[in-house]
Amino acid sequence: MINASGYKVWPREVEDVLYTHPTVAEAAVIGAADEYRGETVKAFVTLQSGQQVEPAELAAFCKANMAAYKYPREVEIRDEMPKTATGKTLRRQLRTP
Predict the structure, then answer these.
(1) 42 φ, ψ (degrees, to nearest 5)
(2) Is pTM beyond 0.85 here?
(3) Of 41, 44, 46, which Cα lies nearest the Cα of 26?
(4) Which end of the chain has less Cβ packing within 10 Å, N or C?
(5) Do residues 29 and 42 lie in contact, with contact meaning Cβ atoms separated by under 8 Å?
(6) What is the mean pLDDT of the chain?
(7) How far is Cα of residue 19 from the mean position of the Cα atoms in its chain?
(8) How far is CA 25 from CA 1, 4, 44, 48, in A?
(9) 7-9 and 2-4 as β-strands: parallel, antiparallel, unpaired?
(10) Contact, 47 vs 76, CB < 8 A?
(11) What's the rounded Cα separation, in Å, for the pair 85 and 13?
């Protein structure tokens, strides 16, 4: 759970909205440190092969489809997500810069 300015944000909610975007193949959401809000929502995304999209476009898509305090303030597009041997996303590795 992410505590953004006292509001509770479940990463799964944000990921579910990102998965509805046609260019998104995988999504992982974490809480990133923010000086003003305490924590802020940050999304990591991999794209479908051959697709292109700007991070700002994904953030705007989320903002249009969910509450204003839940949408990701930062979106990072990656080639691949760090995974365990069983295929689970390693969120701890996403937290380290």
Answers:
(1) -125, 130
(2) yes
(3) 46
(4) C
(5) yes
(6) 95
(7) 10
(8) 23, 26, 11, 5
(9) antiparallel
(10) no
(11) 25
